[in-house]
Amino acid sequence: MSPHVTALLPLAAAGALDADEAARLDKHLRECPACAAEAAEWRRLAEGLAGMPSPRPSRALVARTVETIEERLAESSERAWNRAALGFAVAFAWTMAVVSWLLLDLLTGALAARLDRPVGPTAAWYAAYVVAGWLTAGAAAALLGRRRQEEGRIT
User: Fold this and answer.
1) Could you count the other beta carbons within 10 Å of the beta carbon of residue 103?
2) Nearest CA among 14, 19, 22 for reference residue 43
3) What is the mean pLDDT, run by run of 10 residues, along the chain of 155 residues?
């Protein structure tokens, strides 16, 4: 008998074969008495296991399991809310940076026209300020995220 058909015997005893596999196995068992004997042993074992009482989980285990599932669902919901809030904050910050850049450009352009002097250094300082702010915020977000992951691993 091939090893593939031998592997089907426990599945047949458990009733886990589809129709094609069961037909192929039945055909082989009619031709091979050794495999038929082994299949009978597997059936006896499966019947014996089916007759055994099934253990019931304790109420404490059920309560802990339900509590754990509820905690994980709450954490998942909180993570989704945090992602949405972070997305809104990022979009709002970019919008405010662009609007303030346009306002600064408008004001400095008007100021430059009045003073007849270039205000390029002011715009450069503003650009440096915005870039530094974004880099600082990004670093803080990365550090907080890393800390949150480490806390999640510990608990």
Assistant:
1) 10
2) 14
3) 71 88 89 88 89 88 94 86 80 79 69 61 74 80 77 59
- 42 closest CA partner among 21, 11, 5, 3: 11
Distance between CA atoms of 68 and 119, rounded to whole angstroms?
Answer: 60
Rounded-to-integer distance, Cα 6 and Cα 10, Å: 8
Amino acid at 102: L
| pLDDT value of position 4 | 58
CB 17 within 8 A of CB 4: no
Contact 14, 43 (CB under 8 A): no
Burial label, 90 (beta-carbon count in 10 A; 0-12, 13-18, 19+) = middle
Q: Show the DSSP H helices in 32-58 as ranges.
A: 33-51
pTM of the model: 0.37
